[in-house]
Amino acid sequence: SVLPHIIGRSLIGAAVGGIALYLYYHQGAKNYFLVNNSDLHTYVMVLMGLLQVFRTNISFGSYNAAVIAVFDMRARVINTVTQGCAYINCVDEAESVEMRSELARFLTGFLAVARKTLNGSNKQPRNDGTLFTATELEELSQCDVDARPYLLITWTRSLIATAAQKGYLALPCVGLLDNNISQLLADFETCKRIKRYNMPFPYAQMVKIAISLYLLVAPFAFVVDVKYGTPVANFFLSILLFGVDEIGVEIEEPFGKDPNDLTLKPIWQNVEVAVASVLSNKNRSPYSLHLCHSGCNESVFISSPSKSRSAKAINSDAMGGSLTQPLIND
After folding, report:
1. Contact assessment for residue 107 and residue 131, using Cβ atoms and an 8 Å cutoff
2. Model pTM?
3. What's residue 160's pLDDT?
């Protein structure tokens, strides 16, 4: 709640309303400039309104961009894992399972270290043996917190490159996977930019000055109509204006451990559940990748039920610059 942050300022606004009421009845309305001249109150209101609108729009834009980037990262990790499960196939099924599992582990590990980076945590990733090995944890501990997500991306790309070199992954499929990883990294960079670059301090300061000035002037203008309700009216007006400004402060930096920040852990924990479900599902489509069990050198086929081409053949075409033949023959 933003109320604890603004209740003190709102009580001051109520006190200003009380002063305006006192002056109105004891000094006389006709002798007080601010009561008879509402133009000053109007000018300050317009200035304050413009500053408040721009500030709120920028803050909400940052929050919305962060939400989109977070869920895009979630979707890209799941998408990359499903692509890897569909595209990576080895002669030895155990090796296929291992490579797919490693891909999923690196990508979920990326989300784990990215969450700590965005939340400003210096803690090490969990050491329960399910996400990182002891060697990997040691390498991560030697990296700066901000650099750990990049290390996970490097490991992921190295795994994909190894699969392609062994002929377990066709180059066009490598391109699809690498594009997803590039977009994943771009989303992470968006989140880092939002975290580091907030509203410029002079602008935020000017918004608060404009609100304070308006709340100092406004009671002397509407005391003529509100009279004894002036302190109460200015109190709630202060809550409204300072509350909107405080909301902008809260949402412009949506990453961290504050109550109003994005809760990345439950959002990304669902990824682990989805990835585990994908890895445990052994049902394969008839239009998916098929293994060659006849002892041939061309170990992986991308095929329909009637015709197929090997991953090595596709890689050879791609290396030679010839991709005119369709990836899947009809």
Report:
1. no
2. 0.75
3. 93
CA distance 125 to 323: 43
Q: Output 132-140 pairs: Cβ under 8 A, ≥24 positions apart.
A: 136/109, 140/113
Residue 259 exposed, middle or buried by CB count within 10 Å (0-12, 13-18, 19+): exposed
Which residue reads 């795994």 in tokens?
159
Interatomic CA distance for residues 269 and 263, integer angstroms: 11
Contacts of 324 (CB under 8 A, 6+ apart): none
Q: Quick one: pLDDT band at residue 190, thresholds 50, 70, 90?
A: very high
The structure tokens listed for 74 are: 């979630």
CB atoms within 10 A of CB 271: 20
pLDDT digits (tens, 9 = 90+) for 12-62: 989 988 988 888 777 665 555 555 556 777 778 888 888 888 888 888 888
- The beta-strand segments (E) located in 80-226 are none
- For 327, phi then psi, to 5°, come to -65, -40
At 129 the pLDDT is: 58
What is the Cα 185 distance to its own chain's centre?
12
Angle between helices 3-26 and 201-226 (to 10 degrees): 40
What does the alpha-carbon distance between residue 312 and residue 298 come to, in Å, rounded to a whole number? Answer: 6
258: tokens are: 């504050």
Q: Which letter does DSSP use for residue 304 in this model?
A: -
Cβ contacts of 29 within 8 Å, gap of 6 or more: 35, 36, 224
Q: What is the mean pLDDT of the chain?
A: 78
pLDDT, tens digit, 9 for 90 and up, residues 264-320: 888 877 888 888 888 877 444 444 444 333 333 333 333 333 344 445 554 444 444
